[in-house]
UniProtKB/TrEMBL annotation:
<protein>
    <submittedName>
        <fullName>Substrate-binding domain-containing protein</fullName>
    </submittedName>
</protein>
<dbReference type="Pfam" id="PF13531">
    <property type="entry name" value="SBP_bac_11"/>
</dbReference>
<dbReference type="InterPro" id="IPR050682">
    <property type="entry name" value="ModA/WtpA"/>
</dbReference>
Length: 227
């Protein structure tokens, strides 16, 4: 039986779990998936880790194509993702309708959990710097090295968690308040490509075509992504 090794950004973890099993059932091709933030994956790929297919942010995939690690031909943009805020289940939902409301909400939080390596964390660090509140926020922030920031809501370490909405939705016991206002963010685009030295090139191409097809749209939407 063919077995594809896939490295994917955390943002697609929820969707990929159900899509991989649907693909396996339809084709008999097994998908062995490993999930990590894009920056961590880029480091691993540059260190020579082997894979057949990778799903990264568009910028990350373009870097890999530029370095000749991923073939440009057939790469596909799969989904768009917005950064959102979450609270522990049952907590009141703060106002984040516009920049002024968001600023008040962020400053009122005891601690905000955000990631160091994920695209959402990089964006959030830039956002609070631009809003002039980085020092206040970072004085009490809960910085998550890797994984899901919303876990810090459940443990009680933080009042608010910031991450891609699709990643927030991976954690039970929390509620997504909504996206950070769209005029304050450019959505991350997650894209897939086949590795130049893929051992299972044909099977990887087949998975790539499936992930880029309209069949997967409902699953993407359900996991908090826009096709």
């Amino acid at each position: 039986m063919d077995r594809i090794r896939m490295l994917s950004t955390l943002g697609l973890m929820g969707a990929m779990r159900s899509l991989s099993s649907a693909f396996e059932t339809a084709t008999g091709i097994q998908v062995e998936a490993d999930f990590a933030p894009t920056l961590a994956l880029l480091k691993r790929l540059r260190a020579g880790e082997a894979a057949d297919l990778v799903i990264l942010t568009r910028e990350g995939l373009d870097e890999m194509i530029g370095e000749g690690r991923v073939i440009a031909d057939g790469s596909a943009d799969l989904a768009r993702s917005y950064v959102g805020l979450a609270v522990r289940a049952g907590q009141p939902h703060p106002d984040i309708a516009n920049e002024a409301a968001l600023r008040r909400t962020l400053l009122a939080a005891r601690s905000i959990a955000y990631s160091r390596l994920g695209a959402s964390g990089v964006y959030f660090a830039q956002l609070i710097a631009r809003m002039g509140i980085a020092d206040e926020i970072n004085a009490n922030a809960t910085i998550v090295e890797q994984g899901f920031t919303a876990e810090r809501l459940v443990s009680g370490e933080a009042d608010l968690a910031v991450q891609q909405i699709s990643e927030l939705k991976q954690v039970g016991g929390i509620e997504v308040v909504g996206p950070i206002p769209h005029d304050l963010q450019i959505p991350a685009v997650f894209s897939a490509g086949r590795m130049a030295d893929a051992r299972q090139a044909e099977a990887a191409d087949r998975l790539l075509r499936y992930l880029a097809s309209p069949d997967v749209v409902p699953v993407l939407r359900q996991s908090g992504l826009e096709p």
